[in-house]
Amino acid sequence: MSLFAFGPSRGPRWQIGLQAGLGISVPIAVMTLAGQPVLGHIAASGAFTVLFAGTSPIVERARILPFVAAGLLVSAALGAAVAHSPLLVAIGVVVIAVVSAALAFGFRLGPPGPLFFVLIFGVTTTVIPATGLSPVVHLGALAAGCLFSYLVAVSALVLPAVRAKHSRPLRELLPGPAWDADARMLVLRVVIVAVLGSLLGTILDPGRGYWIVGAAVAVIGVAATRRLAMQRAVHRLLGTVVGTGVYALLVLLHPAGLWLALLLGVLQFAIEMVVVRHYALALALITPLVLLLLGAATGGAADPALALERVVDTLAGAALGALSGLLHPRAEPDD
After folding, report:
1. What are the b/e assignments for 261-290, b being 16+ CB within 10 Å?
2. Burial class of residue 218 in the structure, from the number of CB atoms within 10 Å of its CB (0-12 exposed, 13-18 middle, 19+ buried)
3. Structural domain boundaries in the chain
4. Which residues, including other chains, have CB under 8 Å from residue 255's CB and lie 6 or more apart?
5. Are 74 and 96 in contact (CB under 8 A)?
6. pTM of the model
7. Given CA atoms 48, 49, 51, 52 in this order, what sign does their dihedral have?
8. Separation between Cα atoms, residue 103 and residue 149, nearest integer Å
9. Cβ neighbours of residue 159 under 8 Å, at least 6 residues apart?
10. Mind listing the pLDDT tens digit for each residue in 190-249?
């Protein structure tokens, strides 16, 4: 995972890139035209649904993605329930990180692992107090976004040739629950970084704990070793710093409405094209996307101070994730 070279290609990515781009841009565009842009920004988070099982055939993704959507909605529901209590938010981010990690690793969900469940929890705890929306409305918008993204992802099933392809049974697609030594180690690392990250967030600002924990979980990934943990930490930090600069440039354009919908769709498409080949470059695009979406969903203007906070939070989370990699034995082949 070199900073100066792309990893090997793992097959065409334009399909999932297009699905993710449409999943994030169409809800924003439609709801902006309907006079409810904030609901569109919330629904756009449903695009996280299609980021999973990207290499699986469509007939198999059709079976896997509903479980992903359900996990996102449960994470958001917990976030909505505790949004007005900083203490419960701090506890909740630990619960979501640990439970989602245990399920993702125990059922071999694959990349991106538990990251987006943590992120959707944190976004919900930020958006609801900022907008004053009721939890029911917030969850309804998110559910609509998840459903739309799912329909986009499986739309090719209208073709008989696609439907005719064989799908493995669900118990083979999501085998488990079973936790081998590697899975147990990954869950243990998530437990440690979630607790420490949440405590650190409580000291800095209760609203920032989820970003610290998310950064640490992203560094852990789904198959980290000592060496890979450090590499991902470097990519995470540098990618976020560059992404913060990109965000600062984009906010000068004051993107909003349909222009924001198009911009976020393009960013999401680009992310999916590069994420499996160059993690730092992907983070340089993910950071402005999340910051722009979060700012729009909370109804506030773009805030350079928020970007600086995210760099600090990412540094803390990346350090936690990398240090937790020391729990892996030195004798591992990848080291």
Report:
1. bebbbebbbbbbbbbbbbbbbbbbbbbbbb
2. buried
3. 14-327
4. 263, 292
5. no
6. 0.88
7. positive
8. 22
9. none
10. 999 999 999 998 888 877 788 899 888 888 876 656 677 677 777 777 877 788 788 878
